Amino acid sequence: MNHQDTLAQRQAAEPSQSSLGWLGYGAVLSALASALATFLILAGATPILPTHNVVVWVFALNGVLIAILLGIVAWQTRRLVRERKAGAAAAGLHVRIVGLFSLVAVLPAILVAGVATVTLERGLDPWFTGALKDLMTNTVSIARSYRELQCRTLARETQLMAADLNRAKVLYDADRNLFREFMNSRATFLGFPLAMVLEPDGAVVERFEAKKLEGVPQPALADLQEASNREALCLFPRSGNIFRTVLKLDAHGGRILYVAREVDPRAVEFPQVAEAGVAFYEALDQKKAGIQIAFASMFALIALIVLLSAVWFGLNFANRLVAPIRRLIHATDQVATGNFYVQVPVKRGEGDLGHLGETFNKMTSELRRQHDSLTAASDLMDRRRRFTEAVLAGVSAGVIGVNARGLVTIVNPSTEALLGASREELLGKPVAMVLPEVAALVEEMSLGRQRLMQQQIHIARKGKERTINVRVTSEQTRSEKRDLVITLDDITDLVLAQRTSAWADVARRIAHEIKNPLTPIQLSAERIRRKYGKVITTDREVFDQCTDTIVRQVDDIKRMVDEFSSFARMPKPTIGSEDLAETIRQVIFMMKIAHPEIEFVDQVPPGPLVAPFDRRLVSQAVTNIVKNATEAIAAVPEEQRGQGQIRVLLDDTHPDFLIIAVTDNGKGFPVEGRQRLLEPYMTTREGGTGLGLPIVAKILEDHGGGMELADNPAGQGGQVRMWIPKIKHNASEETSATSSRNDSRRASL
């Protein structure tokens, strides 16, 4: 599993560490055995005599073993330091344990070495021969000659390269890159890892560096000034094994060639070592303590072997002690980051630390089981939440969730559209503030034990009044504090449709029952007037007035019955592709002629605007609305409203509908019961039949559109917004989708 990658990577390194451990065991045991054998040989306790060759071989063997031990200890110390710097787990404890073991090993070793040195110096009388003295003296001369030979060789090769560069001056002037390649090739051929052409002030003109030489200084100005054009000047290093030379280039205008090369370290170090050795030999010769020094060195080797062995044992013991603790710390860190699949490898022989690892593994297994259970439960709840949100988003009715404190916790898009507020404005607010119309019902539901309560209310938002069917349900809990769910179902269109249908049925019945006896009544009155008009001589005026009244009232009743019939039997629209802009312009033109005292503002696009509609019916609807606007303006005294103005707007920016807005500065619409003006026989004007707005609403509904009544956004007056679809819909689709479409239309318009 990917959860265990860190521990797996650390465990992958254990085979190499185990191999190094076996190598360490072998090296330590071999070194200790060699030290014991060396002591026995020097003490004369073995058949092997301590001759010069034997001593050399013993020294060499001990040196190799010491080098191996040093390498192992250095590698482990380097790894320990690296872990300490990286802040590895238990690195501090590791360092303290190793330091303690080293201190315990160093103190006895130093004490034993000191005692052995004093004992040997006092117990042995070294002897020396003249040949050995001559050999030491000649060694110094040879070392100096070797160093001077190296310097002369470097100077000679420098002069060769300088001659080549002088001849290549023409190439330098013509093509620097080609000159640089020539210089690099000559430096490579002559074995110069570093070659530079310098100005007399030390500025670098060209540089070639085949490999990185550590500790190579720039030549001093004094060295550059001392440089000659005939013989290269050799610069001996104060430290290190790099020889340098400087030589002037005649053809390059006083520029200086500077080269450097590594030589055998003995060329630099050995003369000094040899001189020190001779001086030391002479001092020993004077003190006759050579043998003591040899034995002391042997004891030092033995002590060093013992010391390194002790240090290695300390490192190995610390590794074994810290390893399980480190694994446990790493595993704990993994658990802290949420990885409950981590397991601590437990090895045999780790004792209580191994038992601690097993206990930790049991703990992580239990944590993993509980975490998986909680994760599964969380995923299930998250899926249910997403499903609930999807259901609420697709519900046409508004849904509001209220917690036990009366704060809104859930709203769906239908609620936002119905209340005219965004989700951010509704969430976290008291339900009495968001929807005060249901505050009493919510309070009653919270105090009682009912599971369901419903009520029909009217809400007004942004000048629009809607009829809402409210249902309040509570969650199933025994606690007194219960969460509530409020469902808001907009039944405005349904109520209007029911009332319109009922009034249409009433109108049909009235028209049928009343219209039949009207004609006989009218004919009878006219016949009475013709037959008895000449006979009656007294109260003739009364007789004529009565018969005229009968005939006139019958005509009025006929006209009213005709209006009933026209409302009850609205003709089905004959849909065709018509120019809506031209239709509205014609209505405005006729109304301008009829009402010159009113200012008409035309906000209709100049070009044609073709849409599927019945020209005659839509023209009738717009005419009725504009006519109502003129009557609303006439109902307000001029000194209160100023110049009468009617603004007609045709908006085609909506993706689905064409919007017609008629705005006036008349008396406007009432705040309460505004939507009931769309019901038959509801009117606020004297003498009005209350059928104008219902007929307009019926025409727009038959076209797949609708209308709403609002206030004038600019101030006094009212506004009627009508819309018809841009594309034709089937009648069956219109019937099934009227309610949901109206809701979405009102939200977007």
TrEMBL record:
Q: Which UniProt keywords apply?
A: ATP-binding, Cell membrane, Kinase, Membrane, Nucleotide-binding, Phosphoprotein, Transferase, Transmembrane, Transmembrane helix, Two-component regulatory system
Q: How does it sit in the membrane?
A: Multi-pass membrane protein
- Transmembrane regions: 20-42, 54-75, 95-120, 293-315
Q: Where is this region: Disordered?
A: 729-749
Please state where this protein is localized: Cell membrane
> HAMP domain location, by residue?
319-372
Q: Which domain of life is it from?
A: Bacteria
By its UniProt entry, which NCBIfam families does this protein fall under? sensory_box
Q: What is this protein called?
A: histidine kinase
Name the species this protein comes from: Microvirga arsenatis
